């Protein structure tokens, strides 16, 4: 029998959701409204006056080859981070779900990296891949592989992708492991009896049942790569060398804070926010429906 909690009147329910509404309004709705307002304005060189320019900031953005290059760079970055983070986490979750000795210890160790701050994650990878003092970077140079992420844009992008993906693996691992444990063992046993083994059983039985989790993490990881990797990218090389690792979220900071171009920075924020909203809407409308069928 289903039990429901009924609150007397409307005051108590409103008070219970009031803290969340206040947080949403102060930390999301109000900054978003400010960004939209600033994106339609342009400040003078000293920041003392503003002028309403309509959509000129957006027109300038999409006519700027540097911004278009940053869009392409961000798409590649998000795709690589998502693919690596989800792929590695899925493999680790499958291994941790097997009957092995000390698996509780392994699961705990795999979850811990999620507690590391993004900037600290970048520092750890920099210490490993520094061309002179890094354990891996110095070793690569010793064996004849030219490695210097400070000078090579491709190497710098590879380093920030690895650092950002490593930080997200633990988050994905938690959900993948929970999804695997939610699959009825009777289905797995029936597939084993029918002769489905190893990779074939995973591909035909386990993965289809895990697809709702995959779709959820796909959107979460794309949003993470687009927004929450600012500290990681900035701490590794500040967007360099040149602009080889300058993603959209980092360009928003550099244009708005460093270069004091608030109108352009706000327009970039609105574009980035609109992209994430569209991505989430598509996930809820199409991917969620497909996962449910």
UniProtKB/TrEMBL annotation:
Top-rank lineage group of the source organism: Bacteria
TM spans (from-to): 12-33, 66-96, 108-129, 156-183, 204-227, 267-287
Keywords, comma-separated and alphabetical: Cell inner membrane, Cell membrane, Membrane, Transmembrane, Transmembrane helix, Transport
Bilayer topology term: Multi-pass membrane protein
Keyword DNA-binding: no
Primary residence: membrane
Location within or outside the cell: Cell inner membrane; Cell membrane
CDD domains for this protein: TM_PBP2
Matches recorded under PROSITE patterns: ABC_TM1
InterPro entries, alphabetized: MetI-like (IPR000515), MetI-like_sf (IPR035906), UgpAE/MalFG_permease (IPR050809)
One Pfam family named in its UniProt record: BPD_transp_1
PANTHER family in alphabetical order: BLL4140 PROTEIN (PTHR43227), SN-GLYCEROL-3-PHOSPHATE TRANSPORT SYSTEM PERMEASE PROTEIN UGPA (PTHR43227:SF9)
Annotated function: Part of the ABC transporter complex UgpBAEC involved in sn-glycerol-3-phosphate (G3P) import. Probably responsible for the translocation of the substrate across the membrane.
Entry similarity comment: Belongs to the binding-protein-dependent transport system permease family.
Annotated protein name in UniProt: sn-glycerol-3-phosphate transport system permease protein UgpA
Taxonomic placement: Bacteria, Pseudomonadati, Pseudomonadota, Alphaproteobacteria, Hyphomicrobiales
């Amino acid at each position: 029998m289903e039990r429901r909690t009924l609150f007397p009147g409307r005051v108590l329910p409103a008070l219970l959701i009031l803290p969340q509404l206040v947080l949403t309004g102060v930390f999301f709705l109000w900054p978003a409204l400010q960004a939209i307002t600033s994106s339609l304005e342009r400040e003078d060189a000293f920041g003392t006056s503003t002028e309403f320019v309509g959509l000129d900031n957006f027109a300038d953005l999409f006519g700027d080859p540097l911004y278009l290059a940053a869009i392409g760079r961000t798409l590649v970055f998000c795709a690589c981070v998502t693919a690596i983070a989800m792929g590695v986490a899925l493999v680790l979750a499958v291994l941790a779900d097997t009957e092995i000795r000390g698996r509780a210890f392994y699961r705990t160790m795999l979850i811990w990296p999620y507690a590391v701050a993004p900037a600290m994650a970048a520092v750890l990878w920099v210490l490993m891949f520094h061309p002179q003092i890094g354990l891996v970077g110095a070793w690569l140079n010793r064996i004849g592989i030219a490695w210097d992420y400070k000078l090579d844009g491709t190497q710098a992008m590879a380093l920030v992708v690895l650092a950002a993906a490593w930080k997200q693996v633990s988050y994905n691992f938690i959900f993948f492991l929970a999804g695997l444990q939610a699959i009825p063992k009777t289905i797995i046993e029936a597939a084993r009896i029918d002769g489905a083994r190893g990779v074939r059983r995973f591909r035909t039985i386990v993965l289809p049942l895990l697809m709702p989790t995959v779709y959820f993490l796909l959107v979460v990881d794309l949003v993470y790569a687009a927004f929450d990797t600012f500290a990681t990218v900035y701490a590794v090389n500040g967007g360099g060398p040149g602009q080889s690792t300058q993603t959209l979220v980092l360009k928003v900071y550099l244009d708005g804070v460093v270069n004091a171009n608030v109108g352009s920075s706000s327009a970039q924020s609105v574009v980035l926010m609109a992209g994430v909203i569209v991505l989430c809407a598509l996930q809820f409308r199409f991917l969620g429906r497909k996962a449910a069928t």
